[in-house]
Design a protein that fits this description.
2,3-Dihydroxybiphenyl 1,2-Dioxygenase, domain 1; 3 helices; four-stranded mixed beta sheet; about 130 residues; alpha/beta
């Protein structure tokens, strides 16, 4: 396999209105698709963030049923020069930064949670280079 990237990240949230308000309203991710009670999909740069209602998706025949419980983690990458600005936007919008880590290369990333308790992160480009 010659994988270029992870194209989709899937999380599960029963309250799709909360997902809409947080990911679209607060973070500004464009909406690709929404089906009431089932899912809401967002564009995240060149990737897609899928938010499924776990009660609906666990009973599907196609695509195969899937669901999970617990705290998921994923990171949004921003330009290195935009890291502090994006972190401040979160704080200004009432999002609590739960941790900030300085990595070996001196770059920092910050962690915060969505309304369902998923652990999100803002990372500057180059953190894994």
């Amino acid at each position: 396999m010659k994988i270029k990237q992870i194209k989709e990240t899937c999380i599960y949230m029963q309250d799709l209105d909360q997902a809409h308000n947080f990911y679209h309203g607060l973070l500004g991710l464009p909406i690709i698709s929404r089906v009431e009670g089932k899912h809401i999909f967002f564009r995240a740069g060149t990737s897609v963030l899928l938010c499924f209602n776990p009660e609906d998706s666990r009973n599907k025949k196609s695509p195969p049923p899937h669901f999970a419980k617990g705290k998921y983690h994923f990171a949004f990458e921003v330009a290195e020069a935009d890291y502090l600005v994006e972190k401040q936007k979160l704080i200004s919008n009432g999002v609590k930064i739960t941790d900030e880590v300085e990595w070996r290369n001196g770059l920092k990333s910050c962690y915060f949670e969505d309304p369902a308790g998923n652990v999100l992160e803002i990372v500057p480009a180059g953190v894994w280079d």
